[in-house]
Sequence to fold (832 residues):
Amino acid sequence: MTRFTCGCMSPQEERLHDKIEGKEDKFRKTHERVFRMVEKFDGTKPRIDIERALYFTKSMEKTEGEMLCLRWAKAMYNIAENMTVYVQDDQLILGRGGYDGGRYGILYPELDGDFLDIAVKELPNRKTSPASITPEDAKRVIEEIAPYWKGKTFHEKLNASLPEDVHKLTYDDPEGLLSRYIVNETASFRSSIQWVHDYEKVLKRGFNDIKREAQEKLAVLDPLDPQDTMEKKPFLDAIVIICDAIVLWAKRHATLARECAAKEQNPVRKAELLRMADNAERVPGEPARDFWEACQSMWFVAMFSRLEQKTGTTISNGRMDQYFAPFYTKDLEEGSIDELKAMELLECLWVNMAEFIDMYISPTGGAFNEGYAHWEAVTVGGQTREGYDATNELTHLILKSKREFPLHYPDLAARIHSCAPDSYLWDVAETIKDGSGFPKLINDEEVVPLYVSKGATFAEAYDYAVSGCSEARMPNRDTYTSGGAYINFVAALEMALRNGKMKKYGDIQLGLETGDPLGFACWEDLWEAYKAQHIHFLRAAFIQQYNIINIRRETFAQPMGSAIHDLCMEHCMDLHQQNRIPGGINLGYFEYIGLGTVVDSLAAMKKLVFEDKKLTMKQILDAMEANFVGYEDVEALLRSAPCFGNNDPYADSIGKAIDELSVKYANKYNASLGIHNDVRYVPFTSHVPFGKVSCATPNGRREYTPLSDGSSASHGADVNGPSAVLLSNYYTKNYGMRDRAARLLNIKFTPKCVEGEQGTEKLVSFMRTICDLKLWHAQFNVVNRDTLIAAKKDPQKYRNLIVRIAGYSAYFVDLSPDLQDDLIARTEHDAL
Fold:
């Protein structure tokens, strides 16, 4: 085995080959504890723990008829009181939601109860993100948990609510268990979209003080006021219960840690266990006093949030370098901590995050989130609430940990802005060059003005935290939690070329009848047909969202999340009471899937059929029907047409016009939903299953293969270098309109491209260009194509190869062959 691929390897590739050759990881000596913990579970299949689902269900059975928020709080108290707690070997941070000794997932029957009994039988053997479950636990799910939820889940209510024309674009069966992958709802496989809690509030106040606030509000309610009696009192009662619940849960950990300390023979470990017990006895009930207590308090909140609800993309960790900084600085000054000890505590947090697997039980959810997708973002950098650079010592320590920690947790996000110091961007660039896909970049120059335009103050907007794949949240101001539609606009193009039908679905009339494409006399005829199908899809998505908003408030509650949200406490309202919380900003979205594919296809037909007349429409349709077999000359000609991703005004002008369709529609109809339902280009891994229903396309793409992802170029289409990709993104955005949100941009470099100090300088300059162009997001793979091919061929040797997928990193070998091929096919830039 050669140690050099294309003359240069990333640090990750170097470490990987060292491991293959039996050499010890160079970071092990300074990270001994975390390496021991990781080696116990790394690469193991997750195991489903049913306790959360069991105790949640048993409580909900007893509280029917009460206000939902109060029922939820009582269910959480039942979990806190009865769920097994654990103290793990080597761990310094307590708190997990399932089995000891490995990766685990938990169940949310309020989401999946109508098909949970079927799902638990299929989970161990499914192709994407499988999980084990014991026969005894599976039996309890089938007999004790799932039956209660039949007829009560959000999914069933939504399925029944959709008009027939919307239903057939959404689901492929009457029960709504299978997606058509056209206008795909996502609200039914998560309780909330990505979310960020106000961790700083808990660190400074503690839940006992939040409980005191709720009790004071209870004391002044007017017993004659029906709203106070029927709405505010149950909400505040729920807050009191949830505060008691999380404190009880923490103290149960303290008791167990003391019991373990009493049995421990090693004096060093005994002292650690006693300190851990003291931490859990105090936080999160009381304010944290030092860095260790702050880490423990934060994790109790994050883990209890996982027990409370399934947040899409896992709960965010917020601006960790900001809210931890006072504790870190104080401990450094007092000499009670040093850099290595602080990093060890952080990495104990990372291990806890890595052991919790956010399982998607539904087949659609699993297809969207391959490789045990996770987005428990830790945000670093950015600006203070006053608008000044916010980087500090902890920012750089977290970046250093990311380069040395042996797993793809946590998901690290770096905020960049025009005044970001070179020292920070240099450190970010060095971390990117490491090759494991961290950190992703989020651009203040785009995010902050958009949030201000939607009602935030500058201080609130400056304080946003990355949450989920490429989105962000403003703690205490964001109030919207409903998942939005993923829309396959390649299907809209196909329907424009098949008069409202799709090859995959035969003679079913799914879209509008926009005419026989052989009768299109000019480009304008084709464009009008595509526009009609595009708008038809948007109409379906907005009807979906209208129903989702109205149904969800009857199905979900979030008392702990509400307890630490200023507006919820001020108005005594649960976060899931959609579109009602005064002062809240309701930021939702719908996804455009397949931008590059659609732009390139329309550009090819406009150029080759209607302008240059090198091809006829019939030739293209015949070639597509044959999947280009026997039509390779047509395929080659189509691939030679102008493409998105090359800073080509011809293609990019079409992309901007497409974007304008969505932005204008959102601007016109958002008021009907009472939210900002804005266009995003963030597919996760959905461009793969969406591609599996889409026939061959006029850009030369073969049928049922992946679509272009996010706002990235089509595979192999971006031939003018990475800067041209940035400029195409810039020129396809409608900056003068606000009804838009994140764009996900994947860029792949060879390690040779960014080699040495000169490579770092070029990468820093590239990041500043992203900043100047006001592009929302960018993320990078720095890996050799040969390494990916070798890993696909010999997965055991490359078990630890980490790659960037869609807003998250994952083990390459955990991905489906389709997604592996998709990553291999991405353009590999070897010059900056």
In short: The chain has 35 helices and 17 strands. Residues 161-184+471-743 form a domain with the Anaerobic Ribonucleotide-triphosphate Reductase Large Chain fold (CATH 3.20.70.20). Residues 1-5 have pLDDT under 50 and may be disordered. The longest helix spans residues 226-263.
